[in-house]
Design a protein that fits this description.
This protein is of the alpha+beta class. The protein has a single domain, classed as RRM (RNA recognition motif) domain (Alpha-Beta Plaits). 27% of the residues lie in helices and 36% in strands. Strands 1-2-6-3 form a 4-stranded antiparallel sheet. Strands 4-5 form a two-stranded antiparallel sheet. The chain is globular and about 55 Å long. The model has no long low-confidence stretch (mean pLDDT 92).
Length: 97
């Protein structure tokens, strides 16, 4: 298994992700583009000490942007929405509202 910190990049903090964390007990994270659902589940359980029910993933292609006279491309990225068991919480969203 790869390093936990190499799989999980950062939390995605938006109004929708905070709302789903409070109401549906889901956590939204940016993950490594090569990580699969099993690796994501193990990494979340190991790092945060919670039990994971389900992992949903989505892949996003980077946008093309113009920089001065050249075209550049932002990096591709992957998002994971992790559903936690009832009673488990991840505390990096506390105090955001």
């Amino acid at each position: 298994m790869r390093n936990v910190y190499g799989i999980l990049r950062k939390p995605i903090v938006t109004e929708k992700s905070i709302e789903s964390n409070e109401t549906e007990n889901k956590v939204t994270l940016e993950v490594d583009i090569k990580a699969n659902k099993t690796e994501i589940k193990r990494a979340v359980e190991e790092l945060f000490g919670v039990r994971v029910i389900k992992v949903n993933t989505a892949r996003f292609e980077g946008k093309y942007k113009r920089f001065r006279f050249k075209m550049g491309k932002q990096r591709d990225w992957k998002k994971a929405v992790v559903t936690l068991q009832e009673g488990d919480r991840v505390d990096f969203f506390e105090g955001m509202r």
